[in-house]
């Protein structure tokens, strides 16, 4: 039996900004239906990975393949057609404050004329129900709590029916209970929609709960990949220091 093509395959990823090397040969494979978390310190380049996948940044070298199609160097219009199969939950939800919730959630579908007005309203209502916020279409983003804004951002990302969800620090800035609501929601939506997920986080309780596999980014490379149990049990000193939040070890502040 032929091996299934990964939904996302990254090989030899390199990206630098001037003399600052962010990625120095990273490899990552994401299987269909898998949730894969990338952990690492703040400012180490985790979000750059998502931007390279979406085409917001072009890698200096390496390969980024979505279901076997090479994205690096792809024509802009062709890439746009491919990335429509991806959804993105931004760290701050990135809602448009000038629009109500319904307009935010339906923004991409409306811009691309993918639904009739009635179909659009039905889809917005459906995905808001998925994230536990039915009937709030006419509320303004300013009226929402941080957790509600995250959920609206997630509903917007899901509205077009993506095959791959990209999560940029989905629990940052949230209290522990709201963070767990978001974690439960990510798991629920994977089960409901069979969507794969690439999660950037430094929140270890979240990574342990939602991820099938976890990779550690350190000094431009993914130095360890394993299941949550393998991460907990590792004798790798760098990984162990990070996941256990110890001040003393090979990782220095800002590394």
Q: State the low-pLDDT regions, or none.
A: none
CA-to-CA gap between the ends? Answer: 43 Å
**Helix count, DSSP H or I runs of 4 or more residues:** 10
- Give me the strand/helix succession: EEEHEEHEHHHHEHEHEEHH
What's the arrangement of strands in the largest beta sheet? 6-7-8-3-9-10
Helix vs. strand class: alpha/beta
CATH topology title of the domain at 1-85 and 196-255? Rossmann fold
CATH superfamily label of the domain at 1-85 and 196-255 = P-loop containing nucleotide triphosphate hydrolases
Q: What is the CATH top level name of the domain at 1-85 and 196-255?
A: Alpha Beta
Shape: globular
**Radius of gyration based on Cα positions:** 18 Å
Brief synopsis:
This protein is of the alpha/beta class. It is 36% helix and 24% strand.
Structure description:
- The chain is an alpha/beta fold and 255 residues long.
- The chain has a domain at 1-85 and 196-255: 3-Layer(aba) Sandwich (Rossmann fold).
- Helix content is 36%, strand content 24%.
- It contains 10 helices and 10 strands.
- A 6-stranded mixed sheet has the order 6-7-8-3-9-10, sandwiched between helices.
- Helix 7 links the parallel strand 7 and strand 8.
- The longest helix is centred in the C-terminal third of the chain and has 18 residues, at 176-193.
Defining traits:
255 residues; alpha/beta; Rossmann fold; six-stranded mixed beta sheet; 36% helix; globular
Chart the SSEs and their pairings:
Blueprint: E1 8-17, E2 20-30, E3 35-39, H1 46-54, E4 61-66, E5 69-70, H2 76-83, E6 86-89, H3 101-105, H4 107-111, H5 117-130, H6 146-158, E7 164-168, H7 176-193, E8 196-200, H8 204-210, E9 213-218, E10 221-226, H9 228-233, H10 237-244
Parallel strand pairs: 3-8, 3-9, 6-7, 7-8
Antiparallel strand pairs: 1-2, 1-4, 4-5, 9-10
């Amino acid at each position: 039996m032929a091996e299934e093509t990964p939904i996302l395959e990254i090989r030899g990823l390199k990206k630098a900004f001037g003399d600052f090397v962010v990625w120095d040969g990273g490899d990552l494979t994401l299987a269909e239906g898998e949730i894969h978390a990338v952990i690492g310190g703040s400012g180490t380049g985790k979000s750059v990975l998502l931007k390279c996948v979406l085409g917001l940044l072009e890698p200096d070298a390496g390969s980024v393949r979505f279901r076997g199609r090479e994205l690096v160097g792809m024509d802009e219009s062709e890439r746009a057609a491919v990335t429509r199969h991806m959804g993105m939950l931004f760290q701050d939800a990135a809602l448009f404050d000038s629009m109500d919730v319904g307009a935010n959630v339906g923004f991409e579908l409306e811009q691309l004329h993918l639904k009739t007005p009635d179909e659009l309203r039905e889809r917005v209502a459906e995905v808001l129900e998925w994230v536990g916020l039915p009937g709030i279409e006419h509320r303004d983003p300013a009226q929402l709590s941080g957790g509600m804004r995250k959920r609206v951002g997630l509903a917007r990302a899901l509205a077009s029916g993506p095959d791959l969800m990209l999560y940029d620090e989905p629990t940052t800035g949230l209290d522990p209970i709201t963070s767990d609501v978001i974690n439960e929601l990510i798991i629920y939506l994977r089960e409901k929609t069979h969507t794969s997920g690439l999660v950037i986080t430094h929140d270890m309780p979240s990574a342990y709960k939602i991820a099938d596999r976890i990779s550690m980014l350190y000094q431009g490379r993914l130095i360890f990949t394993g299941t949550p149990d393998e991460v907990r049990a590792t004798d790798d000193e760098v990984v162990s220091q990070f996941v256990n939040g110890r001040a003393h070890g090979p990782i220095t502040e800002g590394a």
